[in-house]
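@channel anyone free to eyeball this complex?
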Amino acid sequence: MSTHLTAHLTKEELTDNLLGVSSLTVNAHLLSCPACTDELERVKNSIAGFRSAARAWSEDALVKSESRASQVGVFGERASSARWPARWILASAVLLLLVAGSLAYLHQERTTSQARSVEVSTPMVNAGLSQAQLDQDNELLSQVSGELSEAVPAPMQPLLVSESSGSNAVTNK
Amino acid sequence: MTPTIPAELISLSGDHRISELEDIDALVRAYKPKIFRFVAFSISDRDAAESITQDCFLKAHLTRNQFRGDCSVSTWLMRIAFNLVRDHTKSQKFRFWKAAAASAIDAGDVSQSLASGASSAEAQLIAKERVKMVYEALRELSGKQRSIFLMRFVEEMDLSDIAAISGMTVPTVKTHLYRAVGAIRARLGAAL
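replying in thread with the prediction:
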């Protein structure tokens, strides 16, 4: 990697210089070549700037991270306990919803079954309520049946009586 | 004539290094900034870097009995961090969304962290722009090249230590550095 005084530094020679292991030839070239000196300075300054910025950034990031961690540490229990009521409220709300839903369902079921039982029991109730009427109807029906079962209907009984008396009269004649 | 170090002094030094690992709090206080910085800029993800940094110290504490004291604690921790970064990079290799991670390190934030100093506003602007370009060039390097660049030019570690940490030879480490510096020069040259 020897460098002529006229040729510019190779990337290896330039990097070696950055690493502090450049040869005497490279150093001699740099003394006589403003272009290579400028290039070297530019790269060196850029890397040095990045080093400074990286260190500053990481320090800042660590401070922020530790600040966050301390907030969690100091307020962690508080934050945690502060979250507990919210959790309890949420759990209670869910429980209430479940209970309310169950109650609503049970109520609906009960209403439906009552309606069904009313539907089913209504004839019986109606029958119970009209028992007296039914007895009257039965009595009436039995009267009607008795009357129908007679050979001569009741309205025709007078005719039957008058006819029998008339025949007696003919016989007597 | 090479000065010789007494064996008991070496032993004492090794014991001191080993005992340094016992106090995890002190260990974290002393080395966390360095480890976090290395990991953060290796993977470009702040949250993941915090997690990996914690893993690094946990692993160091759990495996402290394996530390023989033949290198500095800093180098040993960097070796653990280097391996964790490599594992993370492998596991994240095909996750395309990683670039859009919410905790991704923004080049603008990094450049804004550069101290203003006593230079003119224009010089500060140029310096910040160059910081941004260096960071962007680093992100385009391979994980290994980036880690090696960070160890040498940000953490200012010796080439022999970097070689020991990465399991490479010194010439291989230098080759990675040539490529990394070449990429940065290309980026700087393209922009300016």
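from a first look: Chain A has five helices and no strands.
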